[in-house]
Design a protein that fits this description.
This protein is α/β, with parallel strands linked by helices and 144 residues long. It has a single domain, classed as 3-Layer(aba) Sandwich (Rossmann fold), CATH 3.40.50. It has 6 helices and 4 strands; from the N terminus they run βαβααβααβα. Helix 2 crosses helix 6. Bound molecules: 4-nitrophenyl phosphate (4NP). The site of 4-nitrophenyl phosphate has 11 residues, from loops.
Amino acid sequence: MKILFVCLGNICRSPLAEGILRKLAPKLEIDSAGTSNFHIGSQPDYRMIETARNRDIDISGLSARQFKTNDFDYFDKIVVMDAANYKDVMSLAKTELQKDKVIFALENDEDVPDPYFGGKQGFEKVYHLLFNSCQQILDSIEKR
Ligand code: 4NP
């Protein structure tokens, strides 16, 4: 099973989700990407590196990349963080099979709030939301 997490910049939310799920399920193939080209090649935001490090998760070695249409073919599930990511990713999908791979991280298609322009609390909140989300993703995989 190959899972790709997608956010806008690939420096806050999706790298954290990648780090969390990797720790929970070391055998899965996991990656992350951004819909934008804003931060290509950058390390995750230092505030998110710190948030992860406080839970013994090391995301400092990750490097941001942009989502590409080939990702639809390589990955089994594409997990987006918010409605804008969903719209951007879906606009690149060509087939129903590709569209069916795209799911929201949170239930009821709720947004994982973008913490980039806020304070430390926003990063903590994202950690809790994504930890729960990753556990649910794992449950749904294991039930199949
Ligand atoms: P992310 O957060 O999508 O969770 O990586 C953001 C990072 C950077 C920007 C926006 C969101 N930005 O506008 O540069």
